[in-house]
Amino acid sequence: MPEKRSIPICPAAEFPPGERRIIETEDGRSIGVFNVHGKYYALRNYCPHAGAELCRGVVTGMNEPSGVGEFRWVREGEILRCPWHGWEFDILTGRSVFSPNQVRVATYETAVESFEAGVDEVGMVVVRV
Ligand code: FES
User: Fold this and answer.
1) Angle at the Cα of 90 (from 102 to 71), degrees rounded to 5?
2) Does residue 49's CB lie within 6 angstroms of at least one atom of ligand 1?
3) What mean pLDDT do residues 23-28 have?
4) Residue 50 CB–ligand 1 contact under 6 Å
5) pLDDT tens-digit readout, 53-66
6) Quick check: helix, strand or coil at residue 56?
7) Which InterPro entries does this one have (predicted)?
8) 5 lines ligand 1 (CB under 6 A)
9) Which of 87, 96, 97, 98 to probe ligand 1 with, by most ligand atoms within 8 A of CB?
10) Contact by Cβ (8 Å): 83, 47
11) What atom of ligand 1 comes closest to residue 54's alpha carbon?
């Protein structure tokens, strides 16, 4: 299996929680990188329903199962809603909310790697493909 390449996104200091970046790889993949509560996650920017740019959708939370008339909002900032028809995905795993074992989007490993910038070391967010 070929070794994975690290694609630099931007310095971690410029990528705060709640933000996203969308990149294009040399081989034509579009990937969305999200900072969720201080950790980085990367998803293929392609909705498995009908091909929308999934990673441009709203980042939100969800209601967890509860009793009749009860609404418990959970996981704020961890759920991505497709901009075309509203399918929702867990940013942390790529799995859909409605059918997590059958419908999912590809995920990629992320890391913060040290780069030298003059005399300083900079923590750079990377995605491995
Ligand atoms: S294309 Fe994403 S929900 Fe339809």
Assistant:
1) 105
2) yes
3) 95
4) yes
5) 999 999 999 999 89
6) helix
7) Rieske_2Fe-2S, Rieske_2Fe-2S_sf
8) no
9) 87
10) no
11) 2
Residue 4 within any structural domain of the chain: no
Considering the domain boundaries, does residue 5 fall inside one? no
**Residue 55's Cα: distance from chain center in Å?**
7
Provide the domain limits for residue 92.
17-110
Nearest CA to ligand 1 atom 1: 50
The confidence band for 116, taking pLDDT boundaries of 50, 70 and 90, is confident
Q: Say whether pTM exceeds 0.90.
A: yes
Q: Say if residue 117's pLDDT is above 80.
A: no
Distance (angstroms) between ligand 1 centre and the Cα of 45 equals 11
In this prediction, residue 91 carries a pLDDT of 98
- Report yes or no on 11 lying in a domain: no
Q: Please indicate, yes or no, if residue 128 is contained in any of the structural domains.
A: no
Ligand 1 atom with the smallest distance to the CA of 51 is 1
Q: How large a percentage of the chain has pLDDT more than 90?
A: 90
Number of independent structural domains in the chain = 1
Tokens at 107, concatenated:
């995920």
Mean pLDDT of 71-98: 98
* Residue 53 belongs to domain with CATH number: 2.102.10.10
